[in-house]
Amino acid sequence: MSQLKAVILAAGKGTRMKSDLPKVVHTIEGKCLVDYAIEAAEGAGAGEICLVVGYKYEIVRESISHKDVKFVLQEQQLGTGHAVRCAKEFLGEEGQTLILFGDTPLITAETLKKLREHHIASGNTVTVLSAMVEDPTGYGRIIRDADGNFVKSVEHKDATEAELASHEINSGMYIFDTKELREALDLILPNNAQGEYYLPDTLTIIKEKGLKVDAYALDDPEDITGVNDQEQLAAAAVVIRRRIAGNKAKNRR
Ligand code: UD1
Ligand code: MG
Question: Where does the record place the Nucleotidyl transferase domain (predicted)?
Answer without folding.
Answer: 5-213
